[in-house]
Structure formats: C-alpha cells, structure tokens
Amino acid sequence: MLAVIWKVLSYPRYRLISLPTPMERANKLSRELEVNLLIKRDDVMELHLGGNKVRKLEFIVADALSKGCDVLITRGATHSNHVRLTAAAARKAGLDTYAVITPPGSTATQGNILLDRLLGVKLVYVDKVEEADSEMARLAEELKSAGRKPYVIPVGGASELGVLGYALASLEILQQSLSYGVKPDYIIHATGTGATQAGLTLGLKMLASDAKVIGISNGRKSSELASKLTKLFNDTVKILGIDLRASEEDFTVYDEYSFGGYGVITSEVVETMKYVARTEGILLDPVYTAKAMYGLIDLVHRGVIKRGSTVVFIHTGGTPIPFQYAVEIEKYL
Fold first, then answer.
1. Whole-number pLDDT of residue 291
2. 296 in Cβ contact with 216 (< 8 Å)
3. HEC profile for 16-69?
4. Residue 239 burial by Cβ neighbours in a 10 Å radius (0-12, 13-18, 19+)
5. Do 100 and 122 share a domain, yes or no?
6. Last residue of one domain, picked from the residues 116, 135, 157
7. For the whole model, what pTM was predicted?
8. Could you tell me which residues are beta bridge partners of residue 77?
9. What is the β-pairing status of strands 122-125 and 96-102?
10. Exposure of 268 by Cβ count < 10 A (0-12 exposed, 13-18 middle, 19+ buried)?
11. For position 250, which CATH number holds?
12. Active-site choice (80, 159, 170, 258)
C-alpha cells in the first residue's frame, strides 16, 4: 500500500500551497443532521482565495515547466475558479495565461472575472461552450506561430495529472479524520469535470479505505459523469504503472441537485447558503458548494446517508462567485 501511494507522492509537483488544508467539525450542523460532519476546507489556501483546482495545478504546472512551456491555455465559464487559479499558478511560475470564457454568467468585471483581469489573463470570449476546445486549439497554433510554447489544460484541470491532486488529498482526509478519532463513512463534494472524484476514489483504493465517495453533480447527468470518471481513473493508473482498474459502478453521482442546470441559481440554493452561513459561519457559493451541501442534507433526510455516520464534506472553494452573482442571490435574501 505504501509503495503504491509513494508513486503519487514522488510525482513531480510545483508547490503552490501549504498542506494539509484545515478540517473542522461542523458542530451545529452535526447536531441538526444527527451525523458527525467534518468539513475539509479546501477553500482555505494561500493561492488567490484557494479552491480544489490548486491541488491539480501543482502537477499540471510542473509538467508544463518540464516541457519548457511559457504560456498556459485553458477554459471555463465566466465564474470559473479554474481559470482564476490557473492564472495565479502561472504567475507564480513565471508563465502567461490565455483563457477561453464561455457562458453561463455575466462578463462584467466582478467576482472571478475581476480577479482574472487583475492577474492579467488574456480573456477570449465565445458564445457557445461547444466552441471552447477548438478555440483553445486555434490559440495554441497562433501562439506557436509567434514563437511561444503553449501548454493546453483541459477544462477544470480534468486530466491524469489533475487526478493526482485528489489522490493525495485522500491521504490527508484519512489522517485528519483519525485526529478526530473517526474514520469517514462518506466523502461528499461537488463534481463536474471529474478529476476531484476520480482522484479521491483512486486514493482511497490505494489506501484500502472503505469510505464511500459521493459526487453531487453541478450540471452533468450521472451517466455522463460515470463514464468520464472511469476514463480519468483508468488513464491515471496507466501513467502511474499500478495494477488498479475502475468501472462505472465504482462511482456514485447524484444529478438531481443542479436545480435546472449548471450555473442556475434558485431559492433552494440561496437558502442553503444562508443556512450554512448562519449555523457555521462558512461561505458557500451558488454554483458548486451550496448545491453539494443541499445534496448532502437531502441524502441524510432520505436515509441514503445513515444517521450517526461520519461524513466529510469537501469545501472545494469558490469564494469570489457570490460577488459575481450578487444580483441573482439578492432576489432570495
């Protein structure tokens, strides 16, 4: 087991943050839900307001530097945490960033768009999500023609290297849970592009943990995500050279908590933000973490998550997003 996890620990990384990130017990929520709820605070990081993408970028940026690249190209929605953090990581490493920006959301200079501009990201807007990958490819060719060495990062850092970030995070989660005298029964988070859930599942398999990973989809159908997660997992074990394999049955995703789709904000979403802010003083965002928390609460009420169990909720970040969607959130305050 240690030899297997060492393959991840020894993989080249460009260090961006101090680890581990904090884990805290949500005392009031634990009492109200009748579970032992621990919150893994991946929103608390030094790099530009933090978030789960940083763990992935440590491996991705290391790879870009090893190949002599001088500019990163990626994509995301207007509120993209991934774009913000890619740009911040790039600045740390002395690289430039181009980002293809897609709907949904306002392109006004606020929230993550404001931070992108402060970081000097070269933003390229497209009208349709389906145009984003081809636009990244076009930008890469244009930059090559100008003598640059671009490195293209898929949306959300969803690559084999991105998966490694949360394979390691699973070790942190188990160690910190042990400091509370417990083992996690469930680990819950918002899932979208897939590298976080694939990484957690891989890490827990490496560590022979029986904790159940539950992804709450922020928009994609569970069947689509299960296929993507399986591919990410199996592609990652290939680069590590380890004898593990996953199938779609290894991944649990609930897709009924997106409230109309990716980036859609409803009264239920804002009520969840208010509830967690007023019980634990923790800020959730309306695109990812509030929907994941709503899902967690509902799964407890439905009996899917057993009363008395230990639940780790991964706060994947998104601190700037509420400011970007202030008008929409205000409707329900």
1. 98
2. yes
3. CCCCCCCEEECHHHHHHHCCEEEEEECCCCCCCCCCCHHHHHHHHHHHHHHCCC
4. middle
5. yes
6. 157
7. 0.97
8. 102
9. parallel
10. middle
11. 3.40.50.1100
12. 80
Based on the structure, what is the number of domains in the chain? 2
Compute the mean pLDDT over every residue in the chain, rounded to the nearest whole number.
97
Q: What is the pLDDT of residues 219-245, one digit of tens each?
A: 999 999 999 999 999 999 999 999 999
Q: Over 129-193, what HEC string results?
A: HHHHHHHHHHHHHHHHHCCCCEEECCHHHCCHHHHHHHHHHHHHHHHHHHHCCCCCCEEEEEECC
189 and 314 together in one domain: yes
**Residue 193 backbone phi and psi in degrees, to 5:** -85, -15
Where residue 259 falls (left for φ over 0; alpha for ψ -120 to 50; beta otherwise) is left
Residue carrying structure tokens 């991964």: 314
Task: Give the Cα separation of 54 and 5 in Å (integer).
Answer: 20
Written as one letter, the residue type at 36 is N
DSSP assignment, residue 248? G
Domain interval for residue 141:
53-157
What does the block give as tokens for 173? 């989660």
Active site residue 217: no
Instruction: Compute the distance between CA of residue 307 and CA of residue 316 in angstroms, rounded to an integer.
Output: 24
Fill in the amino acid letter for 52.
N
Q: What is the pLDDT of residue 6?
A: 80
